[in-house]
């Protein structure tokens, strides 16, 4: 299931979050909930791409728990999987480059989520186009 990414984090969000020491997920912090959303979206896109004939394999962790602390290997795998998605499908000229590690800047996390959003939006448009074409040609259920 697709989860709406957060692509508009700002320095103000980070500064605001610095004033809190709660367990609350704030937009200016990087939490396990962010990693869960990112990896679930990677998995969702890989499944959808595969369904429509694109060859892509991802290996990212999708069974996060709220108290799990991501390892370097988890984050490296996320980068590898994003690059796999980008290689398997088309991207816009405005789609950000996959950021280099470490992913400690809010701008890098915005870029990761923007890449996934762009791929999702393009894929949704393609699927809708195929449905319209199938309908116009009198094809079966798409």
Description:
The protein is mostly helical and 142 residues long. The chain has one domain (27-136). The protein contains four helices and no strands. Helix 2 (32-51) runs parallel beside helix 3. The longest helix has 31 residues, at 106-136.
Topology:
Elements: H1 11-18, H2 32-51, H3 72-88, H4 106-136
Helix pairs in contact: 2-3, 2-4, 3-4
Task: From the structure above, extract its key features.
globular; 142 residues; 4 helices; mainly alpha
State the gist of this model.
54% of the residues lie in helices and 0% in strands. The chain is built from four helices and no strands. The two termini are 19 Å apart.
Low-confidence stretches: none
How many domains? The number is 1
Mean pLDDT: 89
Percentage of residues in DSSP E strands: under 5%
Q: Sum up the overall morphology in one term.
A: globular
Percent helix range: 40-55%
Order of helices and strands: HHHH
The counted number of beta strands is: 0
């Amino acid at each position: 299931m697709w989860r709406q990414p957060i692509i508009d984090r700002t320095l103000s969000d980070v500064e605001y979050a610095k004033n809190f020491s709660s367990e609350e997920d704030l937009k200016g912090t990087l939490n396990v909930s962010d990693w869960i959303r990112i990896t679930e979206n990677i998995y969702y896109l890989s499944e959808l791409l595969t369904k429509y004939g694109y060859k892509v394999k991802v290996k990212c962790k999708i069974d996060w728990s709220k108290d799990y602390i991501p390892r370097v290997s988890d984050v490296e795998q996320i980068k590898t999987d994003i690059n796999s998605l980008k290689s398997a499908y088309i991207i816009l000229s405005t789609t950000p480059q996959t950021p280099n590690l470490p992913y400690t800047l809010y701008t890098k996390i915005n870029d990761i989520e923007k890449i996934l959003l762009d791929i999702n939006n393009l894929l949704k448009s393609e699927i809708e186009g195929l449905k319209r074409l199938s309908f116009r040609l009198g094809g079966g259920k798409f």
